Amino acid sequence: MESLKQEFHRNGYVILRGFFDKEVLNNIYRQAREIFSVQINRVLGIRVDIENREAFDKAMYALFERDFDAFVNTGKTVQHLISLHRLGTDPKITAQLQELGLTNPIIGVRPAMQFNSRFLSKNGSKHWKLDPHQDWRTGQGSLDSAVIWFPLVPANKELGSVQVMPGSHFKGLMEADTSGYQGGILADLNHSEFVQTELEVGDIVVFSTLLIHQSGNNTTDLIRWSVQFRYNNLDDASFIERAYPMAYIYKPEEELLTPGFPSLADIKEVFENN
Ligand SMILES: O=C(O)CCC(=O)C(=O)O
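Above: query sequence and 2-oxoglutaric acid SMILES. Below: predicted holo structure tokens.
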């Protein structure tokens, strides 16, 4: 019988059902909504019930429309949840990656949390979903580097769960538009080769960074909340030979984001009055 590693090598991905504890994921999802709800309250003056999914997602759209910067910054902030990072370093992941052949896994980049909805796009732009691409193009890590993709809400076709093209890692690294974040593949692809994943909370897809994949089409009025973890293999010979290339740029802003802040009074408020 084919081992999981053989299936992973053949298809370029595997789906593992019930891999994560639902409660752990629910907690991350809840914490992310709590952070957004603070900005929803500040910007829109409403206290939205984070347990009411329709109402909450609508409030997210309203925040996006009213204060795009606040939305983007909050989106970045939730990526830094300690619970999310803790999950990304769970020994269970290391063991699973080792079973799949990444003998010595290391984090490739910070975790990413995505909120996909056509209502979270500017002027009808398609940036809310990703065209066919290979993550290796943007990560350039070990040849066997892998992505763990999972939803924070049940993700079916209608909610636009990720779509994968089985065996497409054997097409090699494709020409891509590297001008933006997407790294979209330029060649015409046979779209009928895409497989639509359908995942419950707790299920994961592990895929090779060379696998061609794309966002599904979220046709619902709800947000598709999902997370991606990325790992390299320190033992990969080409990774060592290429001196561990690091393609993600992480640097501070040159300008103060809030000009004139903080004053000495602001500082004293924190350090003297508490
Ligand atoms: O979440 C999606 O729809 C696509 C995600 C993806 O392509 C990626 O993280 O590389």
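The pocket of 2-oxoglutaric acid is lined by residues 114, 116, 129-130, 135, 162, 213, 215, 226, 228 (CB under 6 Å).
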